Amino acid sequence: MNNTKLMFLLLASLVLGACGGSDGDDSNGGGGNGKNAPYTETTLGEAPSWQVDWTNNQAIPNWKKPDFSENENWTIIKVKMEDELAPYVSKDDMMALFVNGELRGLANPAVDISTDKMIEGGKFVMKVWGNETGNETVNMSLQYYSQRLKHLFTLNGDIAMDPDETVGIDEEYVPEFTMGSAKYSVKKTVGVESLLTKVGLTPVSGNIVGAFVGNECRGVATLSVSGFTPLDIYGRNTGEAITLRYYDVASYILYTLTDPVKI
User: What burial class does residue 36 get, using C-beta atoms within 10 Å of its C-beta: 0-12 exposed, 13-18 middle, 19+ buried?
Assistant: First the structure.
């Protein structure tokens, strides 16, 4: 297979580039539930079911497989959907890869050849074409359209090709498409335990924390046994004020922090 490294550099770079964010908060110390307290308390009858609403209103892209007869090189890329979007994958979803704006690969979700049913969890296997030989920089765009969500997710990257680099095809890549959301263009990652401790709350494994703008959920996490839980917060604009809610499973108490986090 000629130049099998061609498109894997994109996926590797996108995965690495999508990770990150910053830990921090604007919370004040203290505790209690009186005047100027850093949180309020509400007793709930059952655990809340918080989730980010990824639905959007974007039309289906008019992607058509072009004629690849003049492209000499090709490779296979395997993509697995991240956990946040995997439940929404349907058989008519599409994934496309563009190089310098030119469509080079197009695929629907992979199916089990023995049953002809879509593989659970959302996996895509795409044959990608190109004439690149190395020693050049190209702009690559990996795009995913969800039929159920009516949402086009896009990850872009300028990739410097290295003709001496060898990249295999044995691993599945999990691009963080939520970072390329058309609905939520801003992302901040905070450490949950530090936020709770600073306002006098005790972080407990298994409890739930949610980020909200008004009543719109912008991120959810369940506290980890490891003692460090990252919470991904999704925003529409930089500077939005995010309210954090913390639910104690054992006591049925919902704590709402009064000092917002800025993204």
Answer: exposed
